[in-house]
UniProtKB/TrEMBL annotation:
GO cellular component, one term: cytosol
InterPro entries per the UniProt record, alphabetical: MoaB/Mog-like_dom_sf (IPR036425), MoaB/Mog_dom (IPR001453), MoeA-like (IPR038987), MoeA_C_domain_IV_sf (IPR036688), MoeA_linker/N (IPR005110), MoeA_linker/N_sf (IPR036135)
Protein name per UniProt: Molybdopterin molybdenumtransferase
SUPFAM superfamilies cross-referenced by the UniProt entry: MoeA C-terminal domain-like, MoeA N-terminal region -like, Molybdenum cofactor biosynthesis proteins
Stated role: Catalyzes the insertion of molybdate into adenylated molybdopterin with the concomitant release of AMP.
Keywords of the record: Magnesium, Metal-binding, Molybdenum, Molybdenum cofactor biosynthesis, Transferase
Family in the record: Belongs to the MoeA family.
GO molecular function: metal ion binding; molybdopterin molybdotransferase activity
Annotated GO biological process: Mo-molybdopterin cofactor biosynthetic process
Names of required cofactors: Mg(2+)
Organism: Candidatus Sulfurimonas marisnigri
Pathway(s) annotated for this protein in UniProt: Cofactor biosynthesis; molybdopterin biosynthesis
Amino acid sequence: MSLLSYETSQNMLDLLEVNSARHENLPLSFSLGRVLAEDIVAEYNDPQFPTASMDGYAVIHADLDCDGISILGSNPAGHAETRVVKSGECIKTFTGSMMPKGADTLIQIENVTVNDGKITIDEKVPLGSSVRPIGEGYKAGDVLIKKGTKIGFAQIGVMAGLNKVMVKVALKPRVAVISTGSEILDLGVNSTNPSQIRSSNNYTLCALFEQAGADVIQLGTVGDDRDSIMKTFENALSCADILVSTGGVSVGDYDFVKDIVPRLGAEVIYKGVAIKPGKHILVAQRADKFVLALPGFAYSSTVTSILYVLPLIAKMLGRDSAYKTVEAKLSEEFNKRSKLTEFTACNVVVEDGEYFVNFKNKKVGSSAILTNLLDSSALMVAGEEDGNLSEGTFVNVILLDSF
């Protein structure tokens, strides 16, 4: 079987046209974790006027050499101050208050002594001290948050400051997940013989896709029966944007999925990629919907989901990338196991701003070892042309905490 290179398969995936224009408006309080469908642009300067950043006295800096400066009164936050400070005068001004006209400096309360309606300077401050200038935070027209950004606490705070009552967010793509195989047992089902395998793929992938911003339809498991798989797939495509199945794509007598997908009227974009794990992956498209048939082993299905499903979800959400890739240095020798592009679970350590990779407690074995992805793991990429890699070699690493 001729296999596509990993790079070609990714380029083809990137060229697939998806509908990324779908959006909905949500109240700001309900937008956490969603993806922005528009740029957030400042309509005005922040602050719009010079503002006190501490409690103190608004003064003319040249007056700090005077023996006493008369206090005109107080200027609490939120007060529309109209008085103008003249030489020899000051106004007590509080954090967040508009600086009175005429004043160019705020001297902190702890720097003065108050006596008989006047202040005397105990410790001078520089010109403009403790005064936020117009536009210090941002200026009118600045793009503060870009379209495609996942909304977190900081984005919520900035948008609240802009009085964004409603937020335009990308509509979540719907992803249906199904595990195939007569040997698969769903959660809670009693085993009848020791050769049966407890289902984990559908739960792992549902969590992965939901974490990436999708709405997930959990379809459980279906046995190795053509008609049952066909019906399940057809039902899934009626309500989902992406159908993800695990199992049934290899070359065994009961691997029906690879034959069923074309019967659904889906065009196979490619089947078979030169990667380890997951070389039997199948990617297909029917109208504006996609089918990704992945291998059945737990590690294989998870890795191929990261590499092929997450980018589709990201495109539908209008995001630039599905995950973050960094360059890291090997802290130990790496023995490559095939002539394919390999994705190996690893540990990443950051020292002095540089990434380092090691394989401590990572087991070498089949593509079924999902536990290799525990403990904040990452995926190290070794290309087709790579052989064994020596300590100190720079490699690319996919960070799994960046979805």
